[in-house]
DUF3293 domain-containing protein
Amino acid sequence: MDEALLAAYRATEYRVRLARGGWAVIHVDQPLPVELHPLAQTLPWGFITAWNPRSELAPRATNRQAQHALLAHLRALPETMAIRPGVGVSGDGGWKEPSFWVVGPTAATLDPLARRFGQLGYVHGEGASPAQLRLTPAT
C-alpha cells in the first residue's frame, strides 16, 4: 500500500450509528469513543466494509451486493455480539463508504473476511483500547 493511501486510511473518520441517533467517531490510534463502551465491553471489535475492493471505485450495485453478503457473514459468526451500521468518511469529506462496526470477532476472524471482500485494511480494537489500522495480511 502506498503512503498516500495509508495516510488516507489513517485520516478517515470511522463513524458508528448510535441506537438513539447520532454518531460515535472512531479515529485510528485513539481510544474507542465512550458511547461505544457499553457494547464493546472488553471484547474485540472491528470496523469493516465490502465497498470499493482494493480501494478502487466500484459500481454502487456491486458495492451494495457485496455489503449485503458481508453482513450475512458477520451475522453468521457465532462470536458476533453486536453489529451497528457505520460509514467511513475521508478526512476531507470527499468520499463515504457504508460500513459495519461489529463486536465479538477477532482480527483472526476478520482477516479472511477482509480478504474475501477485497479490503486492503480495516480498523479493529479490543474494548476501550485505541483503534488500530490493520492491513489485511496476504494469503
In short: The mean pLDDT is 95. Helices lie at 3-11, 37-40, 60-76, 107-116. The longest helix spans residues 60-76. The chain has four helices and seven strands.
